[in-house]
C-alpha cells in the first residue's frame, strides 16, 4: 500500500466532503477512492470516517489522524520541492576533500565562489592522501594523481601540477649551484614524502633520464614545512610549484636545475554521478574548471621567471 497516497486521498475526501467529488478532483473512480480510504482505515486499525447516504463526518480518531496527516503531507511536499530544486539553485552543505597543500591554495577560490553562491556552506577536509571514492562521504574530491584508477565516480581534469628543486641563497653560496642532476649526490637533499611516488627524484630532459635517491637528511609530508626547512638553509628540496612561488618571489629560495620539472600529475574534480547532479556540485566543479587554470598559470609565471633561478 502507498500509505502517503492513501493519506492524500483521505485528506481530499474530507476537504471535498464527498467521495464522488474527491474522485473527480483526483481523476479516480468513486470506487477507487472508497477502497483507498478503506485500506487506510485497515492499516491504522481505526474507523476514520462515518459514512451515511447524505453526508460524511470524521470520527474522533479521524480528527486526530487528519491533523497529523496534513502535517506529514505538507512536510513531504516541502522536502520534495527542496530536493527537486537542488539541481536548479546551489544551496546547502557542500562537502569537499582536497590534498592539504592544494586545499590551502584553493581556499581563496572558495571565498570567491561563496560570493556568487552565498547559500552554499563549505565543509573542506584536508589530508595527505586521496580518500577511497567507495566511502562516498564527500560531494566533491579534488584528487592529485598521474592518472586515476577506474571507479564509478565522474572525474574531470581541472589542472596540472609538478614540483621543482629549490634551495636558499645562503645554502647555494656555501655549497655551490648544481649544474646537473648527478651533482645532487654532493648536496644535502631534503625529501618530501609523497604517497604517489617512491623515494627517488626522476629528472627527465633532453639529456635523458636521471634518477636520484636523496639521503634522508630531513623528510616531511607537508610542503609548507619543507619550504621552511629549505629557507633555513638545510639543503635542496623538491617542492610543489604552487608552494615554491611565495619564497621564490620573496627571494628566500632560488630554483635550481630550472630545465627540469618533476613529479608531474593531474588534478581532478571527482563526484559520484552525472544523473540528478546537485546544483552546488555542478557549479563548484564548473568554477574550478574555469578558475584553477588561471591560478596555476600565475604560479607558473613566477616559477619560470629566470630572475628567481640560481
Automatic annotation (TrEMBL):
Which domain of life does the UniProt lineage start with? Answer: Bacteria
Q: Name one Pfam family in it.
A: HTH_1
Transcription as a keyword? yes
Gene Ontology MF annotations: DNA-binding transcription factor activity; sequence-specific DNA binding
One GO BP annotation here?
DNA-templated transcription
Keywords tagged on the record: DNA-binding, Transcription, Transcription regulation
Q: Where is the HTH lysR-type domain?
A: 1-59
Q: Which InterPro entries match?
A: LysR-type_TF_proteobact-type, LysR_HTH_N, LysR_subst-bd, WH-like_DNA-bd_sf, WH_DNA-bd_sf
Q: Does the keyword Transcription regulation apply?
A: yes
Cross-referenced PANTHER family:
HTH-TYPE TRANSCRIPTIONAL ACTIVATOR TTDR-RELATED, HTH-TYPE TRANSCRIPTIONAL REGULATOR
Member of which family?
Belongs to the LysR transcriptional regulatory family.
What is the protein's given name? LysR family transcriptional regulator
Upper classification of the source organism reads:
Bacteria, Pseudomonadati, Pseudomonadota, Gammaproteobacteria, Pseudomonadales
Amino acid at each position: 500500500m502507498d500509505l502517503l497516497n492513501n493519506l492524500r486521498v483521505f485528506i481530499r475526501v474530507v476537504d471535498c466532503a464527498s467521495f464522488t467529488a474527491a474522485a473527480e478532483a483526483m481523476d479516480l473512480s468513486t470506487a477507487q477512492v472508497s477502497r483507498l480510504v478503506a485500506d487506510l482505515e485497515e492499516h491504522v486499525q481505526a474507523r476514520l470516517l462515518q459514512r451515511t447516504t447524505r453526508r460524511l463526518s470524521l470520527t474522533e480518531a479521524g480528527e486526530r489522524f487528519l491533523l497529523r496527516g496534513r502535517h506529514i503531507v505538507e512536510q513531504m511536499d516541502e522536502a520534495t520541492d527542496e530536493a527537486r530544486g537542488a539541481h536548479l539553485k546551489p544551496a546547502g552543505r557542500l562537502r569537499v576533500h582536497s590534498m592539504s597543500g592544494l586545499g590551502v591554495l584553493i581556499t581563496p577560490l572558495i571565498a570567491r565562489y561563496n560570493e556568487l553562491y552565498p547559500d552554499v556552506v563549505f565543509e573542506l577536509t584536508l589530508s595527505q592522501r586521496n580518500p577511497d571514492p567507495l566511502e562516498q562521504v564527500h560531494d566533491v574530491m579534488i584528487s592529485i594523481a598521474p592518472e586515476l584508477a577506474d571507479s564509478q565516480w565522474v572525474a574531470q581534469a581541472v589542472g596540472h601540477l609538478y614540483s621543482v628543486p629549490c634551495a636558499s641563497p645562503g645554502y647555494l653560496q656555501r655549497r655551490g649551484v648544481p649544474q646537473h642532476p648527478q651533482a645532487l649526490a654532493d648536496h644535502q637533499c631534503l625529501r618530501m614524502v609523497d604517497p604517489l611516488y617512491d623515494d627517488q627524484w626522476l629528472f627527465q630532459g633532453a639529456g635523458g633520464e636521471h634518477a636520484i635517491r636523496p639521503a634522508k637528511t630531513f623528510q616531511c609530508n607537508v610542503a609548507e614545512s619543507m619550504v621552511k626547512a629549505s629557507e633555513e638553509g638545510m639543503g635542496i628540496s623538491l617542492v610543489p610549484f604552487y608552494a615554491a612561488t611565495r619564497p621564490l618571489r620573496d627571494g628566500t629560495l632560488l630554483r635550481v636545475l630550472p630545465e627540469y620539472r618533476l613529479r608531474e600529475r593531474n588534478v581532478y574534480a571527482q563526484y559520484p554521478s552525472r544523473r540528478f547532479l546537485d546544483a552546488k556540485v555542478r557549479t563548484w566543479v564548473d568554477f574550478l574548471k574555469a578558475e584553477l587554470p588561471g591560478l596555476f598559470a600565475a604560479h607558473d609565471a613566477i616559477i619560470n621567471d629566470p630572475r628567481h633561478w640560481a
